[in-house]
Specification:
- The complex is a heterodimer of chains A (10) and B (212).
- Chain A is 0% helix and 0% strand.
- Chain A is mostly loops and 10 residues long.
- Chain B is mainly α.
- In chain B, strands 1-2 form a two-stranded antiparallel sheet.
- The chains are: A little secondary structure (10), B mainly alpha (212).
- The interface between A and B is medium-sized, with 9 and 21 residues.
């Protein structure tokens, strides 16, 4: 799964 | 950040500005689906809740604020400022047909069962179908003003560039966001049919795009 900080896309 | 994602974000911004300027300058929202614009405002609201909790970069923060502001401004113009030009009988797509499956799926398929993650997943799934009321309105009225088609063209281009961005990130940094990619591909597919019409109708200088 993805960690929150990796969510750098708009 | 890579050129595909930057170009995609710019296309997205251009699309939103094209629509906002069209409504503002023509002082009319005829042919625009207010429902799609409401869905996009919901997409940004549920996706950018981390605006206050996670700082990624000045670019990220500024773009989120700009997208939120412009999308709410568009909804305001449609439903408040120029509501007398809004033909709601043509904007008849049943939103519950979109919201119920999207809400259900975001509870089933997500990375973590936390409010922020579920809302983020909801916004990803919702964005892939948010354009449906607009495309439905165009098929129903059988035509779209050329500015509206330019708006849809840039929106489709933003999605296509995001797919290129994911391919690039997968090969350069092994990054793969399954939910975003699957949902993004579905969303882009909706535009392919429109792209065909756009090229064969609008770019051939007909001005208006009239469906067969």
């Amino acid at each position: 799964g993805l960690k929150a900080e990796e969510k750098d896309e708009l | 950040m890579n050129i595909f994602r930057l170009a995609g974000d710019v296309c997205h911004l251009v699309a939103i500005i094209i629509l906002l300027l069209k409504i503002w300058r023509s002082r009319s929202c005829a042919g625009i689906s207010g429902k799609s614009q409401v869905l996009f405002a919901i997409v940004f609201t549920t996706r950018y809740l981390d605006l206050f909790t996670v700082f990624i970069s000045p670019y990220n923060t500024i773009m989120k604020v700009v997208f939120l502001a412009l999308s709410y401004a568009t909804v305001y113009l449609i439903y408040m400022r120029f509501r007398n030009t809004f033909n709601s009988e043509n904007d008849s797509f049943r939103l519950e047909f979109l919201l119920v499956p999207v809400i259900g799926l975001s509870f089933l398929e997500n990375y973590a069962f936390t409010p922020l993650e579920i809302l983020w997943t909801f916004s990803i799934f919702l964005e892939s179908v948010a354009i449906m009321p607009q495309l439905f309105m165009i098929t129903k009225t059988g035509e779209a003003e050329s500015i509206t088609t330019h708006y849809l063209f840039f929106l489709g281009l933003y999605r296509a560039l995001y797919i290129a961005n994911w391919v690039w990130r997968y090969h350069t940094e092994g990054f793969f966001d399954q939910i975003a990619v699957v949902s993004g591909v579905v969303q882009t597919i909706f535009y392919i049919d429109f792209f065909y019409l756009y090229v064969t109708k609008v770019l051939r200088g007909r001005g208006k795009m009239t469906l067969p």
